[in-house]
Structures are given as structure tokens and as C-alpha cells.
Design brief:
- This protein is an alpha+beta fold.
- It is 23% helix and 30% strand.
- A 6-stranded mixed beta sheet has the order 1-2-3-4-6-5.
- Helix 1 links the parallel strand 3 and strand 4.
Length: 122
């Protein structure tokens, strides 16, 4: 997965890179993509700490797409099912859902109002 040119890349080190994620600006918030953790470091809280560190800096809501099996992990980090998405993410989710099982999650409040193109059901 490539990072967008305007994305913020976050890494956890111990001493080498053990985890990383990407935050891209979208709408009035951010899209979290590419959360990866070294398999030997999983279940040690690294991902949660990295997400928290990144989102403390984020101004506005943060959205992500994940497989339904991963939703409980993100919900423990404060994410909820997204009722509304920025238009760019709503279209992307629809395209992705043609070949993958994905849900959209959101953390933080959105100021989007319900209008065509801004809402999606997952």
C-alpha cells in the first residue's frame, strides 16, 4: 500500500520500526489507512498506542475501513460504525465493497449533514 502524498505517516520504534499507519486529510477530518504491526509485537498494545498518538494530533473526525472481524478492535479504541462519510470516502467504500467485506468506522464527531453522497450504510 502506498501512502498518499499529503498523508501523515506515523511509526512506532523499539528500536527499529515495529508499527506504522497513515492519516490522510479528507473532508473535515482524516482517513486512517495502513495500520501495520510487526507480527511478533501484536497483542502488546502497540497498535492502540500508535493510533492514540496519531489521533491526539488529528483535528476533526477520523474514518477507517476494516474487515468486520476487526471492528471490535477499533471499537475498543473509541471508533463506532460511521453513519456518514465524506463524499470521497463514500464512493471509495462502495467501490471496495464490490470485492471485499468492509465496514466504515468513525471516531470523533462529524459535522457532515445528511445529504445525497454523504451518507452510506454498511
Amino acid at each position: 500500500m502506498r501512502a498518499a502524498s499529503d498523508a501523515e505517516l506515523w511509526v512506532a520504534r523499539a528500536p527499529g520500526i515495529i508499527a506504522g499507519l497513515s492519516l490522510s486529510p479528507v473532508g473535515n477530518g482524516y482517513w486512517l489507512t495502513g495500520l501495520f504491526v510487526d507480527p511478533q509485537r501484536r497483542s502488546h498494545g502497540v497498535a492502540g498506542q500508535l493510533v492514540e498518538a496519531a489521533l491526539v494530533q488529528a483535528d476533526g473526525p477520523t474514518w477507517l475501513f476494516c474487515h468486520p472481524d476487526l471492528a471490535p478492535f477499533y471499537q475498543r479504541l473509541g471508533f463506532e460504525l460511521a453513519g456518514q462519510l465524506p463524499e470521497a470516502l463514500a464512493g471509495r467504500l462502495q467501490r471496495y465493497q464490490r470485492s471485499k467485506r468492509l465496514v466504515a468506522l468513525q471516531r470523533g464527531q462529524s459535522s457532515l449533514t445528511s445529504s445525497p453522497g454523504n451518507s452510506t450504510s454498511v
